[in-house]
Amino acid sequence: MEKCVSCPRRCGVDRRVNKGFCGVGDEIIVSRAAPHYWEEPSISGEKGSGAIFFSGCNLKCVFCQNSAISTGKLGKVVTVSQLADLMLKLQSDGVHNINLVTPSHYTSRISIAIYTARERGLTVPIVWNSNAYEDVSELRRLDGKVDIYLPDFKYKSPVLSARYSHAADYFERAVDALDEMVLQRGGAEFEGDLMRRGVIVRHLVLPDCIEDSKSVLSFLHRRYGNAIYISVMSQYTPVGKNLPDSLGRPLTAAEYDEIKAYALRIGITQGYFQEGDSVGESFIPSFDLTGV
Ligand code: SF4
User: Fold this and answer.
1) If you measure from the C-alpha of residue 218 to the centroid of ligand 1, how many angstroms do you get, rounded to a whole number?
2) pLDDT category, 281, cuts 50, 70, 90?
3) CB 36 near ligand 1, within 6 Å
4) Is residue 11 part of a domain?
5) Within a domain: residue 270?
6) Would you say residue 200 lies in a domain?
7) Which residue among 7, 118, 226, 278 is least crowded, i.e. fewest CB within 10 A of its CB?
8) 233 DSSP 8-state letter
9) Number of domains in the chain
10) Residue 15 and residue 23: Cα distance in Å, rounded?
11) What confidence score (pLDDT) does residue 280 get?
């Protein structure tokens, strides 16, 4: 925190007094802690995933679906001990797991909170729901603490990642991060229909980015095979004004069908497709401090 290099941005700021690219200082800020029913079926189950949404983000994609909190300006400050108690409260509500959403800029604090929660009786799996633009040494703090990695894998093209997420090196850093996640948790285990440990990699298909989506899916399948599940998402929703290129419109059914057919053609068998009604702002939760 004194000279933050916790993620590939490597801002080097003193987060006790300043903010880096992620937009938050050294305090943990949470904007929502509540059951969430719209993750993959093996994560949400019937009782929901206990989603804790963190404020701030180290990518700040121009099309961000959670822009209300990615700036770091909305939320409530919680201590490590209070964060552990939020996890325990969600467990007592009956959720299947604790789902830490956009957590990467708080990794060291969260790793202590997970340890604390386990000491206090947390037994459900921990899900690390990140954008994959992460530092491997930070991820090693989570070895033995996180049960399920649920990272995005957004782009292969450095042109797209620079244009849409301000990170020309996204692909290289995401590969490093995913290698570490697979090393820790590759090869899934289930209890009934629910994942108990494993890696699910999400790819959100963007309008007019079909060739890059194919490159991403091909790369993931060749490199990791059945060590991972792949979730191919169609839920892109235009949020905000002045979005570049074709980002001002939803993905078309024809575009998503082309990607689904491609995924099946190259032999991806472990994974998920989304249904057509997944698109829309109603899919985005309210960041109104529920549960915090
Ligand atoms: S965690 Fe935040 S401050 Fe630290 S390097 Fe990443 S973006 Fe910069």
Assistant:
1) 30
2) very low
3) no
4) no
5) yes
6) yes
7) 226
8) E
9) 1
10) 10
11) 53
- The CATH number covering residue 82 comes to 3.20.20.70
Ligand 1 centroid distance, CA of 146 (Å): 21
Q: What is the pLDDT of residue 289?
A: 87
* CA angle, 90 then 148 then 230, to 5°: 120
Using a 6 Å cutoff on CB, does residue 235 contact ligand 1?
no
**What distance in angstroms lies between residue 251's CA and the mean position of ligand 1's atoms?**
31
Kindly list the distances between the CA atom of residue 92 and the CA atoms of 34, 129, 240, 271, in Å, as whole numbers in the listed order: 12, 21, 37, 30
Regarding the beta carbon of 156 and ligand 1, being less than 6 Å apart is answered: no
Q: Which pair of structure tokens corresponds to residue 54?
A: 């963190």
What pLDDT is recorded for position 278? 56
For 170, the domain range is 28-283
Nearest CA to ligand 1 atom 4: 4
The SS3 assignment for 42 reads helix
Q: Which helix (H) or strand (E) holds 67?
A: helix 67-70
Contact 260, 232 (CB under 8 A): yes
Quote the mean pLDDT of the chain.
94
2, 3, 6, 134: which to mutate for ligand 1, most atoms within 8 A of CB?
6
- Minimum-distance ligand 1 atom for the alpha carbon of 24: 2
The whole-number average pLDDT for the span 3-25 is: 96
Residues of the chain above pLDDT 90, percent: 88
Ligand 1 mean position, distance from CA 132 (Å) = 14
Q: Are strands 49-54 and 98-101 parallel, antiparallel or unpaired?
A: parallel
